[in-house]
Amino acid sequence: MKMRTLVLLCLWLSLRPCRAPPGLCGPCQPDRCSLPGGCRAGLVPDSCGCCLECGNLEGQPCDPGNRSVFYGLCGSGLRCEAGGGGGEDEEEECVCEEQEPVCGSDGRTYMNMCQLREAVYSTPELHTAGRGPCRTVPVIKVPPHSQVNGTGSSLIFLCEVFAFPMALVEWTKEGRDVVLPGDDPHISVQSRGGPLKFEVSSWLQIEGAETGDSGTYRCTARNNLGTASASAVLGVLGAEELSSYLANSDRKQPMDIADYDQDIY
């Protein structure tokens, strides 16, 4: 009866490893333990404390303490603690003990040591090149999107950049030798850090668009190591032209700010 209960429990857990409740653990026979493979966070004791199983990865739910009961134990370099959502019934999850970013030998910045260890599993020759982020020229992670809309609409372009040292982001329009917004009252530019570490998000917004706003807009990011840029085309049409455009395109309505946000996030 106990064994049938265990089998049913394992089927219910489906994607989780099958862990025997403490009362169903038999005598420990280490020579009968099979060593699991593909463990990106190393090995930890199973629920019976006899064999080894894969440790849980960063962000996965976990059992607090040193005994695997339901979710399992965190892997190497991870600790089990409540998440940051602030809820009363929030489950514990695995959190990396070393939160400082590191530079990998592949030239990529890893947000913590645990992410580097995970990457080493598939790239064994990878190692730490130094503490802190890799010094790099700007990289455009999210370029601005080309769009078409009608006169009088509000339009927005977004440009997300990763760089260390942090990058300065500027907007220009092809054919105008000036950094936007310049003295144009219906154009504004805003920038802030994020959404991830060492990234900058910059928005170019046009209120009450006019046909003369049509053209190519360029996002340029620079630091002392180099420069990167990306451009997008804006078309601002009158009512009749816009109706004709929509009738002959896949879009059923013009692109607006909300559409742009959904495309990005």
**CATH T-level fold name of the largest domain:** Immunoglobulin-like
Which CATH class of the largest domain?
Mainly Beta
The profile of the biggest β sheet is: 4 strands, antiparallel
Mean of pLDDT? 85
List the domain count as a whole number. Answer: 3
**Low confidence ranges:** 1-16, 256-265
Task: Looking at this protein, list some descriptive labels.
33% strand, Immunoglobulin-like, four-stranded mixed beta sheet, 265 residues, 4 helices, four-stranded antiparallel beta sheet, 3 domains, disordered N terminus, disordered C terminus, Omega-AgatoxinV
Describe what you observe in this structure.
The protein is of the alpha+beta class and 265 residues long. The protein has 3 domains: 34-97, Omega-AgatoxinV (Irregular); 102-134, no CATH class; 137-251, Immunoglobulin-like, CATH 2.60.40. The protein is 15% helix and 33% strand. The protein is built from 4 helices and 15 strands. The strands form 5 sheets. The chain has a 4-stranded antiparallel β-sheet, covered by helices on one side. It starts with a helix and ends with a helix. InterPro entries: Growth_fac_rcpt_cys_sf (IPR009030), Ig-like_dom (IPR007110), Ig-like_dom_sf (IPR036179), Ig-like_fold (IPR013783), Ig_I-set (IPR013098), Ig_sub (IPR003599), Ig_sub2 (IPR003598), IGFBP-like (IPR000867). It is found in: Secreted. Its main location: secreted. Residues 138-235 form the Ig-like domain.
